[in-house]
Design a protein that fits this description.
9 helices, elongated, alpha/beta, UDP N-Acetylglucosamine Acyltransferase, domain 1, 451 residues, Spore Coat Polysaccharide Biosynthesis Protein SpsA, Chain A, binds uridine-diphosphate-N-acetylglucosamine, 35 strands, 10-stranded parallel sheet
C-alpha cells in the first residue's frame, strides 16, 4: 500500500453471541475496560484504516446506539445483515457502504487481542487476497489453510474437513485483506453447499485461486485472533490482555515487584520510574507522571497524578482526582472530583469529594467533606497551607482561608478566614471525684438486687 491508498475495514458483529448467555451484545463486553469491538476498531485505525463499516443484526439496536455514541460519523458507518447467513453474506451487506477503497480489511468484532502491527503487515502485503494464519497444536474448530507448494489455495472449515485436512495445523485466523476491486465478484461467487448451509467468507480463497489471483499469508500468534464466545473466553482474553499491558508498563520503566497482581486498563498511562506495589487496580482514564509511588491495594479511576505524588496503601481515588507534585494520599482515603495541590497531604481515613485543597495544606485523619445534601453536591475549598485537625466535618459549600487552623473534631459550616483558628468543640468540663461517687451508688444498688 502506498500513502495515497485508501484503506477501509468491515467488522463483522452480527452473530448471535448466545453462548455468552447475556443481555449485553457480545462485542460490548469489556476487556481491560474497553468494549471488545472498540479494541478492534482501534487496531484497525492504528493500522491506517480511514473508514469502518460495522455489520450488525436487526435486533442489535443497543449495539448500534452504543457504537454511534462513541464514534464519529465520518470514520464509521453501521449496516444491518438481515439474516445471519454466514460471514460471506455479512461482508456482502457492508459492501455498498465501504466507499471506494483500494483495499478492504475484514475483521471480526469479537477479537479484542488483534494487534495493529499484524493488520499493518496484512495491508502492506502485495497480494490481492491476504489471509491471516497461525500454527497450533489445538486446531479443533478452526478453518484449515490448504497450501500447495507453500502457497495458500483454499480454506476448509473444520465441520467440512475430512480426517486428513483436520490434521493440518495451519489455521485461519479469520481476518482478510482483499483488493477492493476484486471483492464484489469474489463474494458473488459464494455458495452455501456446505455443512452449515452458510455463505462462508473463507471460500473466496479457493475462488481467487481458481482465477489465478495472487494469495498471500501473514502469520500471527493464536491469541492475536482469539474470538470470545463465552464468559470463560472473556476471562481468558482479559488475562492475556493484562499480560500484554503489564509487559508494556515494565518496558516503559515502571517498577512492579509483583506485576501479575496489578490490573491495568487499556488506556492507563504511567511515567517512567513510577512504582506500583502489589494488588493495585487501574480503572479507565488514569494518567500518572514520572516517579509516582502507588502503594499496595489501591484502586484508581479517572485520576491525574503529577511527579512525586504518593498514593496508598489502600487508597481509593475516584474520577476527577488530580494530585499535584509530591501530594500525598494515605491509607483508607477516598477522593472524588478533588484537586489536591502540590505538597498537600491527606494521610489517613478521609473522604475528600468535590474539593480543592491548596498547596501544602494538611488534612488530618478522619476529615470528611460533607459534599452532598441529598439533592446537590457542593464544593469545599481549602486554602494553601491550611491545617485541618483530625475528625473534622466540612459541611459544603464551605471555604477555609489560607493558613487557617481548624481544631480537631470541629464541624465547620461557615467560611473561615485566612490565618484564623476555628473550632466548634464543646469546652472541656471536669467534675472532680464524680466517678468515685458514681461507682459507690451503683455498687449499693447491686447489693440490694442480690438480696
Ligand atoms: C471463522 C472462520 C474460520 C476461522 C475462525 C477464526 C468463516 C466461515 N470461518 O469461523 O475459518 O478459523 O473464524 O476464529 O469465516 N458473523 C456475522 N454474520 C453471520 C455470521 C457471523 O456477522 O452471518 C460474525 C460473527 O458475529 C463473528 C464473525 O462473523 O464476529 C465470525 O463468525 P463465527 O461464526 O464466530 O466464525 P467461526 O465459526 O469462528
Amino acid at each position: 500500500m502506498t500513502d495515497s491508498s485508501i484503506l477501509s475495514a468491515i467488522i463483522l458483529a452480527a452473530g448471535k453471541g448466545s453462548r455468552m448467555k447475556s443481555d449485553l451484545p457480545k462485542v460490548l463486553h469489556k476487556v481491560a475496560g474497553l468494549e471488545m469491538i472498540f479494541h478492534v476498531i482501534n487496531a484497525a485505525q492504528s493500522a491506517g484504516v480511514s473508514h469502518i463499516t460495522v455489520v450488525t443484526s436487526p435486533i442489535q439496536e443497543d449495539l448500534r446506539n452504543n457504537i454511534l455514541a462513541k464514534a464519529s460519523d465520518e470514520t464509521l458507518t453501521l449496516t444491518v445483515q438481515q439474516e445471519q447467513l454466514g460471514t460471506g453474506d455479512a461482508v456482502k451487506a457492508a459492501l455498498p457502504l465501504t466507499g471506494n477503497p483500494n483495499k478492504t480489511l475484514i475483521l471480526f468484532g469479537d477479537t479484542p487481542l488483534m494487534r495493529p502491527d499484524v493488520l499493518q503487515q496484512m495491508v502492506e502485503h502485495s497480494a490481492d487476497v491476504t489471509l491471516l494464519g497461525f500454527m497450533t497444536d489445538t486446531p479443533e474448530g478452526y478453518g484449515r489453510i490448504i497450501c500447495e507448494a507453500g502457497n495458500p489455495v483454499a480454506i476448509i472449515e473444520h465441520k467440512d474437513a475430512d480426517e486428513g485436512s483436520r490434521k493440518i495445523k495451519l489455521c485461519n485466523g479469520g481476518a482478510l485483506a482483499v483488493n477492493a476491486a476484486l471483492l464484489p465478484d469474489l463474494l458473488n461467487g459464494l455458495e452455501k453447499n456446505n455443512a452449515q448451509s452458510e455463505y462462508y467468507l473463507t471460500d473466496i480463497v479457493a475462488l481467487a485461486h481458481a482465477q489465478n489471483i495472487n494469495i498471500g499469508l501473514v502469520e500471527c500468534q493464536q491469541e492475536d485472533t482469539m474470538g470470545v464466545d463465552t464468559k470463560s473466553g472473556l476471562a481468558k482474553a482479559e488475562a492475556l490482555m493484562q499480560t500484554r499491558l503489564r509487559q508494556k508498563h515494565l518496558d516503559n520503566s515502571v517498577t512492579m515487584i509483583a506485576p501479575e497482581t496489578v490490573y491495568f486498563s487499556y488506556d492507563t498511562v504511567i511515567g517512567p520510574d513510577s512504582t506500583i506495589e502489589p494488588h493495585c487496580i487501574f480503572g479507565i482514564d488514569v494518567n500518572i507522571d514520572i516517579s509516582v509511588t502507588i502503594k499496595g491495594f489501591s484502586h484508581l479511576e479517572g485520576v491525574r497524578a503529577k511527579t512525586g505524588a504518593q498514593i496508598g496503601p489502600y487508597a481509593r481515588l475516584r474520577p476527577g482526582t488530580h494530585l499535584g507534585v509530591n501530594a500525598k494520599i494515605g491509607n483508607f482515603v477516598e477522593t472524588k472530583k478533588a484537586h489536591i495541590m502540590k505538597d498537600a497531604k491527606v494521610n489517613h481515613l478521609s473522604y475528600i469529594g468535590d474539593a480543592h485543597i491548596g498547596e501544602g495544606a494538611n488534612i488530618g485523619a478522619g476529615t470528611i467533606t460533607c459534599n452532598y445534601d441529598g439533592y446537590n453536591k457542593h464544593l469545599t475549598e481549602i486554602g494553601a497551607g491550611a491545617f485541618i485537625g483530625s475528625n473534622t466535618s466540612l459541611i459544603a459549600p464551605v471555604k477555609i482561608g489560607e493558613g487557617a487552623y481548624i481544631g480537631s473534631s470541629s464541624i465547620i459550616s461557615d467560611e473561615v478566614n485566612a490565618d484564623s483558628l476555628a473550632l466548634t468543640r464543646a469546652p472541656l468540663r471536669e467534675i472532680e471525684g464524680w466517678s468515685v461517687k458514681f461507682r459507690m451508688k451503683k455498687n449499693k444498688s447491686d447489693e440490694k438486687k442480690d438480696k
